[in-house]
Write a structure and sequence with these properties.
The complex is a heterodimer of chains A (425) and B (485). With 425 residues, chain A is an alpha+beta fold. Helix content of chain A is 26%, strand content 23%. In chain B, strands 12, 13, 14, 15, 16, 17, 18 and 19 form an eight-stranded antiparallel β-sheet that branches. In chain B, strands 5-6-10-8-9 form a five-stranded antiparallel β-sheet. The chains are: A alpha+beta (425), B alpha+beta (485). The complex binds flavin-adenine dinucleotide (FAD) (2 copies).
């Protein structure tokens, strides 16, 4: 540390727990100098003020499940670990609203809510991520079709800006149009605008029953031919998911229905999918997980755990349903990649094994982009450096000039996760 | 702004726009002097009626060149003075941008121009079994551009969400006159989400891609009459506690019912202290389950009469009283203020009791109409504008209702927006830091504050004054035409 006048001393004086960082704290290969453990929003602000005074670059870490996603930070001096921001601040069951600190694990929150027969209708990631990380990474899960994504369920947010300013937007009522919705900007911002301190969400009652209709093995074109009818069906599925472990083998489809009449509705979906489909009260094991490349089939994963996408290449495709058949017959047919995702909302994740030739990985990304053109986006969520060097991580970003102006206003000195985000933001 | 500048600007506009698209005649300008909040009026300097995004962009660029503010206007049904024109500025009206550009059924989306009415979208896809979900009561008239700007809601947003949850893409003209496409597919900051609800202060939407929703298999509408508002409130709480999310739960108190009866003869049960309308929709089997539960809950919480709509006509009859409620109070009062506040649902009883106390204290009647499911109140504050002092007392009551909402952790507006009407309440709900941070977004989009200035925020700092902002940014960088990264 920098002696009695350095940032470490300043933080210690402010009462914030801090320790020197080691190689294990590296963010995508960049090792910070300190790790701070704020417990309150004020303590986050203290860390940010000290960081501002000493021109320190700051990266925020939740559970670290996807911390290696995005580009490596250009520099990183201070890692803010949110694990001590772990309080559920307010859960008014009658209002179907919860306010939580950013470091609360999504699973812990889900347990607390389930005790009141409620849920945050974002599919809890399996790997122990935090509320703040879930917001900042802004990924969608299977049930986005019915409930939207994190940005749709977030109704209020408290953030701490690069200069230590504490600001909030929204509130704790579901319906509210007073002022700009800063929560939208911070959702999916990869920590580049500031630190999310706490978040308030709209909740849903836990459905009385759930049923999955699983069609274990079919060719992609067969699957895609029936999916539109399933999506549009009056059974109102909450999710329509696909798993394609490898290009030559079959893919599996699973459709979720939720509600008191789930059994009846599942039967209606099964009538559409055909006799090979069966109704189950548990999801298939691949449900809601990232694709596992090089995995032979829909049996149990050989290597559970591990950081998703780490080592390998993980790509996200966002498009419209009508483009899916073309993709599966085109670029996706010509790659070993494993594919999983939502057919109804047309969001797919594509994973290549770590040993994939970087040129081949880059070619896949280009081929996907060429095939979709304006009708979709292809984002490289995570890739080893040799691949990352060859591809444009983010691809086309509409409104990039405006995004840069936003960044410039929120973080004029570029100290928040610099370089990690679109256009080098 | 001197008249000379506006005169010159009008000439330049006439060169750019089709014949008849530039209005400077005072008699015609008067048509545009206010929106649905008629209390605030101002004659616009110039009105333009562009037909394309390029024309909007050209108008906006010229405004920039002459340093003249501009205000967008859709159908002018806004209830917070958001489209109140500037006497020293230009009003850009979207009424000639009314084409539905594309209906893409396989992908369940439609692309429309901003002047298209909300209902026109639903009408265009109804035969295919789809609709556009957000349904403000003004949907026959209000424009989708206005809905985007206000993040409009409607009775059914309890289950289906607001405008922002149904917008998949926008083409906007930024305050410096550039045309930018924002798509929900794009990585990066959610500019789409930030633009929706920004009340015309971040630019003008010129093309809007909306999600189309499948019309539900079954719809059941139930009307329950209670002796008191407390009974109705207890029913609402019990329905939510039972894990049911109806498509809509609306409540009206006795005075609102009396007004609706006088205006449209809705024939709601006599002697009701509160009328509750609950609409359930979705898969038939699901709706049947929920209906049984809701009916039981209403009886248990003391409903003395329950009616169930068995046909589309009967459903329309139930909704008629509710949908006409705002205008209806005109029948029982010479003048009224429509308020729009939100409280956490569990605070409803206390807040309603507080409103009762205000009525007594000020001798002003308040008719309550509300979206009970999400705690969004629309108190109608009644007064006689001919009686000395009554207007002021009504305004005080209306403001104190907002104070009540804030005290109970709610919001000063659930769907009508801040506009000019409520900007002074913003500091009661937000700290100076909160407002300064919101202002950063404004400065990123509109550093010169030309797009609908004076709305939403009370006397904002100039962009240069915001703490922490770097000085000496090159104007090209500022306008987004060059980058410094
Ligand atoms: C298998 C799998 C399935 C998933 N399914 C879903 C799903 O269905 N729905 C869903 O929403 N998500 C899903 N995710 C995404 C996952 O929820 C998030 O990526 C994860 O929760 C990140 O949490 P974390 O605490 O580990 O964040 P980290 O990995 O620590 O951080 C992720 C990013 O967020 C930033 N960050 C973290 N905390 C903050 C903060 N407080 N303020 C500002 N920036 C911050 C970091 O700097 C980093 O850029 C899934 C992920 C996996 C691996
Ligand atoms: C009887 C009645 C009932 C109502 N019921 C509801 C209701 O149930 N729910 C609800 O939410 N609202 C309701 N409203 C309010 C109003 O209808 C909505 O706010 C509506 O969205 C306004 O649309 P408009 O086209 O009339 O917009 P205007 O009033 O013309 O403008 C509203 C705001 O939008 C901006 N604007 C307009 N077009 C654009 C554009 N293309 N780009 C950028 N900014 C633009 C304007 O500058 C202004 O700030 C009601 C109003 C009335 C009169």
């Amino acid at each position: 540390m920098n002696g009695a006048t350095g940032p470490g001393a300043a933080l210690a004086a402010a009462g914030v727990t801090i320790r020197p960082a080691g190689p294990d704290d590296a963010v995508a290969g960049v090792t910070p100098r300190w790790v701070a453990f704020p417990e309150t929003t004020r303590e986050i602000a203290a860390v940010m003020r000290v960081s501002a005074a000493h021109d320190l670059a700051v990266v925020v870490a939740g559970a670290g499940t996807t911390l290696h996603w995005g580009r490596p930070p250009e520099r990183c001096d201070m890692l803010i670990d949110t694990c001590r921001l772990n309080e559920i601040l307010e859960h008014e069951a009658g209002d179907l609203v919860v306010r939580v600190q950013a470091g609360v694990p999504v699973e812990t929150l889900a347990e607390a809510l389930a005790a009141k027969r409620q849920e945050l209708a974002l599919d809890p990631p399996l790997e122990g991520g935090t509320v703040g990380g879930l917001l900042a990474a802004g990924l969608a899960g299977p049930r986005a079709l019915r409930y939207g994504t994190a940005r749709d369920l977030l109704i209020g947010i408290t953030v701490v800006l690069a200069d230590g300013t504490i600001a909030k937007a929204g509130g704790k009522v579901v319906k509210n149009v007073a002022g700009y919705d800063l929560g939208k900007l911070f959702t999916g911002s990869y920590g580049t605008l500031g630190v999310i301190a706490d978040a308030t969400f709209r909740l849903h009652p836990l459905p009385t029953a759930r049923a999955w209709v699983v069609w274990p093995g079919a060719a992609p074109d067969e699957v895609l031919a029936v999916v539109p009818a399933v999506t549009a069906s009056q059974a109102e599925p909450s999710a329509v998911e696909l798993d394609r472990p490898a290009p030559d083998g079959p893919c599996a489809v699973a459709v979720l229905v939720e509600g008191a009449a789930a059994a009846e509705r599942a039967q209606a979906v099964r009538d559409l999918l055909g006799e090979k489909a069966r109704v189950a009260d548990e999801p298939p094991r691949w449900w809601g997980r990232l694709p596992e490349p090089g995995h032979p089939g829909p049996g149990p994963s050989s290597e559970p755990g591990g950081r998703p996408g780490e080592g390998g290449v993980l790509v996200e495709i966002r498009t419209v349903p009508s483009r899916l058949p073309g993709l599966f017959a085109g670029a996706l047919a010509r790659t070993d990649a494993a594919v999983r995702g939502s057919l109804a909302s047309a969001v797919l994740r594509v994973a290549l094994p770590a040993e994939t030739d970087p040129a081949a990985a880059a070619a896949l990304v280009s081929a996907l982009r060429a095939e979709l053109a304006d009708a979709g986006r292809v984002v490289v969520l995570s890739a080893p450096e040799p691949v990352a060097r060859r591809v444009d991580t983010w691809g086309h970003v509409g409104g990039l000039a405006l995004m840069r102006r936003i960044k410039d206003r929120f973080d004029p000195d570029r100290r928040m996760s610099p370089g990690r985000f679109v256009g080098g933001i | 702004m001197s008249d000379a500048v506006l005169d010159r600007l009008a000439v330049r506009f006439a060169e750019l726009l089709p014949a008849g698209a530039v209005i400077t005649d005072p008699v015609r300008l008067r048509t545009y002097e206010c929106d649905g909040l008629t209390l605030h009026r101002a004659m616009p300097g110039i009105v333009v009626l562009p037909e394309t995004a390029e024309q909007v962009a050209a108008v906006v660029r010229l405004c920039g060149e002459y340093d003249v503010p501009f205000v967008a206007r859709g159908s002018g049904t806004g209830l917070s003075g958001g489209a109140l024109p500037r006497t020293d500025g230009v009003l850009i009206v979207t009424s000639r941008m009314r084409r539905i550009l594309e209906i893409d059924m396989p992908n369940r989306r439609a692309v429309v121009e901003p002047g298209v009415t909300n209902l026109a979208i639903t009408e265009a896809v109804r035969e295919q079994g789809y609709y556009y979900a957000p349904d403000p009561s003004s949907q026959q008239v209000c424009s989708i551009g206005g809905n985007v700007a206000e993040n409009a809601g409607g009775a059914h947003c309890l289950k289906y969400g607001f405008t922002v949850n149904h917008i998949l893409g926008l083409e906007i003209v930024t305050p410096d006159g550039e045309i930018v496409e924002l798509s929900a597919l794009d990585p990066g900051y959610d500019l789409l989400g930030a633009f929706v609800g920004s009340e015309g202060t971040l630019g003008i939407a010129t093309k809007i891609t909306v999600r189309l929703s499948r019309a539900p298999e079954a719809v059941t509408t139930l009307l329950a009459a209670f002796g008191s508002i407390e009974g109705g409130g207890a029913a609402v709480s019990a329905i939510i506690a039972a894990g049911i999310v109806p498509a809509a739960i609306e409540m009206m108190d006795a005075l609102a019912v009396e007004a609706a009866e006088a205006a449209v003869g809705c024939a709601y049960p006599e002697g009701a202290g509160a009328v509750l309308i609950v609409e359930l929709d979705g898969p038939r089997a699901e709706v049947e389950h929920q209906f049984t539960a809701v009916e039981r809950i209403c009886r248990e919480t003391g409903a003395f009469e329950i009616r169930v709509a068995a046909s589309t006509e009967e459903r329309a009859a139930i909704w008629k009283g509710r949908k006409s409620a705002f205008a209806a109070v005109g029948r029982i009062s010479p003048a009224y203020i429509v308020q729009d506040g939100v409280v956490p649902r569990t605070a409803l009883p206390e807040v309603l009791a507080g409103i009762d106390r205000l009525q007594e204290e000020y001798g002003i009647r308040v008719a309550n109409v509300f979206h009970a499911g999400d705690g969004n109140l629309h108190p109608l504050v009644l007064f006689d504008d001919a009686a000395p002092g009554e207007g002021e007392r009504a305004a005080t009551v209306s403001g104190r209702i907002l104070d009540l909402c804030i005290e109970h952790g709610g919001s000063i507006t659930g769907e009508h927006g801040v506009g000019v009407d409520k900007s002074r309440y913003m500091p009661k709900m937000f700290t100076e830091e909160d407002l300064d941070t919101m202002q950063l977004v404004r400065c990123a989009f509109d550093p010169r504050s030309l797009s609908n200035p004076g709305k939403v925020f009370p006397t904002p700092r100039l962009c240069g004054e915001v703490p922490g902002v770097r000085k000496g940014v090159h104007p090209l960088v500022e306008s987004g035409r060059a980058e410094q990264f």
